[in-house]
């Protein structure tokens, strides 16, 4: 079974979907149309069984989805209720998709029995959305590995010119992914230097939940979480979209930091988007290229194994070192 199957995929934040209006959505298992009426969500494959028109280009009328081509109507269970040209219903139905809302995000799956990922039940403080033409593997690696931050985010997280120090890291295999814990790191960029002095020595952690959840968490000296960034990724032929939730886990940080975090992270996201799309375009010119990895690329290698070669994923802890 490929990673696109038996999985819940995030379609976006609930607040961004207007009620009583069809919305198109892309997923690894095809194009969807979703809509909400009276707090009830309905989702289907985005094709009318009559002549194949996209239902997402139609409209919602009296709680039913209307095809824009010949006006066929379907209720929220996908059953045809009316065909105007024959003045009655016919024996036709849409292919239903399971939807649920968790963490303020609308999720879809082709398999109703798919296990739901263990995302945080906390209320988030900042939301971020975006897209890239990069694939799922490269987007996940970009989010979870920190070695690019000296260059792509120079000065924001780490600096190209700051003296590097060795940090020990350990990867812990987990049933649904893995977690990496690094040694505590002093402030090296604007984001951490803005924090009070007693919060400038933080332990970075990276957590992967198969197949499409990436989490960064920064722990204080007493190993309590200070900031958590949770990215939920969706993949389609066009690339990846994401819905990210940021948790500011101190009252003072929440009071002072929401606007700053949203602005700074907005810049960082655009920097990541740029390098990912440069990489993606270049890879298209070298489709058969193989790559050289080092022990510092443990996160990227493990992501690859989870997505494409699960028989090779780690079964015991892996120790490695990075110079950040």
TrEMBL record:
InterPro entries: ARHD_Rieske_2Fe_2S (IPR015881), Cholesterol_7-desaturase (IPR050584), Rieske_2Fe-2S (IPR017941), Rieske_2Fe-2S_sf (IPR036922). Signal peptide: none annotated. Keywords: 2Fe-2S, Iron, Iron-sulfur, Membrane, Metal-binding, Oxidoreductase, Transmembrane, Transmembrane helix. Its main location: membrane. The keyword Protease does not apply. It comes from the Bacteria. Residues 9-108 form the Rieske domain. One of its GO terms (cellular component) is membrane. The keyword Glycoprotein does not apply. PROSITE patterns: RIESKE, RING_HYDROXYL_ALPHA. It holds the Pfam family Rieske. It is found in: Membrane. One of its GO terms (molecular function) is 2 iron, 2 sulfur cluster binding. This is Rieske domain-containing protein. It comes from Runella rosea.
